[in-house]
C-alpha cells in the first residue's frame, strides 16, 4: 500500500508560487494568492487575474506575507487540495524560529502511519 501512496504523491505536475494572504485564522490552513493574467480582447490589454487557494500547512509554520511554493496533494478537506512545499521568502519572523515545513517523505510517512492505524482499528472492530 505504501508504494501506491508514494506514487500518487510523486506525480506532481506543477508547482505554484504565491503570497500568503490569510494565516492563523484556520487550523493548519492558509490562503495563498497566486498571480495570473487574463487577456481582454475588446480592450487589447492584459488584466490581473489572481487565484486564491486554500493550502494545507501541517505544522502551522506560515505567516501572512510569506512567499511560498505550493504543490497539489491529496485532498485534505472539501476545499484544500494543495500543500506547502517550502517557504521562498519569509515575512517577519525568520524561518529558523518557526516549526519546519515537512518534506514530501515526512508527509508520506505520516499518511502511511495514519492509514495503518486506521486499518488496524478497522480489523479490530471487525474481529469483535
From TrEMBL:
<keyword id="KW-0687">Ribonucleoprotein</keyword>
<dbReference type="GO" id="GO:1990904">
    <property type="term" value="C:ribonucleoprotein complex"/>
</dbReference>
<dbReference type="GO" id="GO:0003735">
    <property type="term" value="F:structural constituent of ribosome"/>
</dbReference>
<dbReference type="GO" id="GO:0005739">
    <property type="term" value="C:mitochondrion"/>
</dbReference>
<protein>
    <recommendedName>
        <fullName>Ribosomal protein S17</fullName>
    </recommendedName>
</protein>
<dbReference type="GO" id="GO:0006412">
    <property type="term" value="P:translation"/>
</dbReference>
<dbReference type="Pfam" id="PF00366">
    <property type="entry name" value="Ribosomal_S17"/>
</dbReference>
<dbReference type="GO" id="GO:0005840">
    <property type="term" value="C:ribosome"/>
</dbReference>
<keyword id="KW-0689">Ribosomal protein</keyword>
<comment type="similarity">
    <text>Belongs to the universal ribosomal protein uS17 family.</text>
</comment>
<dbReference type="InterPro" id="IPR012340">
    <property type="entry name" value="NA-bd_OB-fold"/>
</dbReference>
<dbReference type="InterPro" id="IPR000266">
    <property type="entry name" value="Ribosomal_uS17"/>
</dbReference>
